[in-house]
């Protein structure tokens, strides 16, 4: 580790050892450059980001879950096809043992939560947790994630998943209308980003280091952050899109082949900025769906806890404000002057208790979830 990483490790452990645990700092560490750095740290921090009590973990799933289970055969097929998700060079017997654990974790979560429906790609998320934290802790983390961030993907139909995908084009339109219009003319739609979204990019990235870095980021943020990250990938490749033949097949082929050498830290930072500039509440109408109240992202039950001690969106907004105070940003394909929005964010001096940006987050959350009670915000 260089000195910068050592300082970050020290700050993470200081937050973990504080009483109460400083979850806001842990979120900031997960979002900031390099994420949580090591799997050892992730084992300690991921449960805090998901509010999982590691002192009261469920027992390991048993093989009896496979008997008369309607999902078993499909899960088995998907797990058998997941060879590339395991580290290259891993001995066959070790990998096969992990695959058995992967099946049991998935079936355990589905058994305990009958309202959830298995989807192809779910195993790509579960295997990431299994490889990082082990089977017992992975079971608890995946269950919490499945009933919150991933819930919309586990509905009986894909209606809510389609709704979330509908946020992609409005984000692109805000930053690069030319790319948006080109994609609309090509009628490419958003299906190219489906596997990105429902696997948190685990299915499409070959380097496990990049996968866990994104998981650090997504676990520390709002459930819709993966769609913002999908948008910055498209924006980053904007010129490639514009140079492509303007037809559905060509554009879909280009975008579905995600580059493996993306500048991940830059894109993570951009995604956070976009969330601040264009929060979900501003994009809801453009998403052209009437079912907003049904989505996990709209109700975001975790926000009740997050608002009290974690405030994931506030972390992003604080980072955004700090960058605005610095030198003028270098223009790139991802940036486009939005002076009125920048000024609005910079001069919002409306509250001392939470800060201007935090108040905006609260207001946004309440617009999305009008059934929330105001008392949850101290």
UniProtKB/TrEMBL annotation:
GO terms for cellular component: endoplasmic reticulum membrane. It is found in: Membrane. The chain crosses the membrane at residues 185-205, 217-236, 342-362. GO terms for molecular function: GTPase activator activity. InterPro entries: Rab-GAP-TBC_dom, Rab-GAP_TBC_sf, TBC20/Gyp8-like. Coiled coil: none annotated. PROSITE patterns: TBC_RABGAP (PS50086). Residues 36-222 form the Rab-GAP TBC domain. GO terms for biological process: endoplasmic reticulum to Golgi vesicle-mediated transport; Golgi organization; vesicle organization. Keywords: GTPase activation, Membrane, Transmembrane, Transmembrane helix. It is a multi-pass membrane protein. Its main location: membrane. This is TBC1 domain family member 20.
